[in-house]
Amino acid sequence: MKVSKYLSKHLRHQPERIGLTLDPHGWVPVEELLRAAAAHGFPISRAELDHVVAVNDKRRFAVDGVRIRASQGHTVEVDLDLPVAEPPAYLYHGTVAASLDAIRAEGLRPMARHHVHLSPDRETATRVGARRGRPVVLSVDAGAMHRTGHVFHVSANGVWLTEAVPPEYLRFPG
């Protein structure tokens, strides 16, 4: 878990803290990452890195030959170059009750990220929401959004991304 959190921090949010420069699409050479991590007191072997990439339940990282990047969730400027995709009729968003008033008023916004992250099923959205407390799962009428011109992308790990979800496309539980 520590390696995964370390990778997320430096591949999504603060690459400069360990001297990394992501390319425009978020990629960095694996060997450069390993050298930088070791130089900053967090040595990771290639085997450990490959293991974390392979077993991460959210498939947060992608390896392409000799390069690695975070699949999504960046707060630093990157263009993941994800294809535009037609979403399923409904997608889901996990949150907590404390956020519901703001969501009802403003919809879902990306906050510090580049996109709103949506899950393909309720189970995944429940796990996402549970990271911050008791989860509340919202349904997103992605089909209607798509028909009215909202653009969706899907990352390699199945997370759906869109710029924002206006409140009229959200269905709240109970």
TrEMBL record:
It holds the Pfam family PTS_2-RNA. The keyword Transmembrane does not apply. GO terms for molecular function: NAD+ poly-ADP-ribosyltransferase activity; tRNA 2'-phosphotransferase activity. Keywords: NAD, Transferase. The keyword Transferase applies. One of its GO terms (biological process) is tRNA splicing, via endonucleolytic cleavage and ligation. InterPro entries: Ptrans_KptA/Tpt1, RNA_2'-PTrans_C, RNA_2'-PTrans_KptA, RNA_2'-PTrans_N. It comes from the Bacteria. Its EC number is 2.7.1.-. Belongs to the KptA/TPT1 family. Removes the 2'-phosphate from RNA via an intermediate in which the phosphate is ADP-ribosylated by NAD followed by a presumed transesterification to release the RNA and generate ADP-ribose 1''-2''-cyclic phosphate (APPR>P). May function as an ADP-ribosylase. PANTHER family: PUTATIVE PHOSPHOTRANSFERASE (PTHR12684), TRNA 2'-PHOSPHOTRANSFERASE 1 (PTHR12684:SF2). This is Probable RNA 2'-phosphotransferase.
